[in-house]
Amino acid sequence: DAGVIQSPRHEVTEMGQEVTLRCKPISGHNSLFWYRQTMMRGLELLIYFNNNVPIDDSGMPEDRFSAKMPNASFSTLKIQPSEPRDSAVYFCASSFDTYNEQFFGPGTRLTVL
Amino acid sequence: SQQGEEDPQALSIQEGENATMNCSYKTSINNLQWYRQNSGRGLVHLILIRSNEREKHSGRLRVTLDTSKKSSSLLITASRAADTASYFCATAADSWGKLQFGAGTQVVVTP
After folding, report:
1. B45 vs A107: CB contact, 8 Å cut-off?
2. pLDDT value of position B98
3. What is the structure's pLDDT at B1?
């Protein structure tokens, strides 16, 4: 299996632009998680899905952030409009059912200028 | 807010030595997991210990869990330079397996 796939790996954009991050979970996994990691705040859970349904989005910082999972093999995290404080590494992770180990993707390093 | 808090924040040891790091948490859990992150990479799952387990081994890793003290420890024996990484504990407490991560312990192993 290829593991969790994220794209792009690096994104540099200007403040005010829309940013879309993509994730393909491991086939057969039914839970998907989006995290953000910064030096100041550490690893934060933004939102997680179970069977393509958003379960908890309480970690989404603002309405500028939105996430979708249209099917079991694809999810997006969108930031519109982006701000410099959104600069971080964004990770996607998936797991088979609840309470199991999570498999992380390589992350997308986002820089908003 | 973070559920797990690792201690120490940083650890520097020489190859061959053992490395021990601790994790404390606040609420009841279903399981506790340890992850490793190499610089610039995603997290890699190391070991999962359930709330009804007290100790678990995986290769050179040994994890203990004391639910009465709400704490866990990760021991890496005979460390290698390749063990240089940040180590995170994460607790699963809610019914959906949502993980809450600690701030991590940065381990440096020098040859």
Report:
1. no
2. 83
3. 44
Residue of A nearest to B97 (CA): A99
What tens digit of pLDDT does each residue of A76-109 get? 999 999 999 999 999 999 999 767 899 999 999 9
Distance CA B44, CA B69 (A): 26
The per-residue pLDDT for range B67-89, each reduced to its tens digit, is 999 999 999 999 999 999 999 99
CB pairs under 8 A between A and B: 57
Contact A31 B96 (CB under 8 A): yes
What is the rounded average pLDDT of the residues A2-17? 96
String of DSSP letters for chain A: ----EEE-SEEEE-TT--EEEEEEPPTT--EEEEEEEETTTEEEEEEEEETTEEEE-TT--STTEEEEEEETTEEEEEESS--GGG-EEEEEEEESSTTS--EE---EEEEE-
A22 and A7 Cβ atoms separated by less than 8 Å: yes
What does each C-alpha distance from A42 to A91, A98, A99, B68, B81 come to in angstroms? 12, 23, 22, 27, 24
**CA-based nearest distance B80→chain A, Å:** 23
Among partner residues B30, B41, B101, which is closest to A42 by beta-carbon distance? B101
Phi, psi dihedral angles at A89 (to 5 degrees): -105, 125
Return the amino acid letter for B86: S
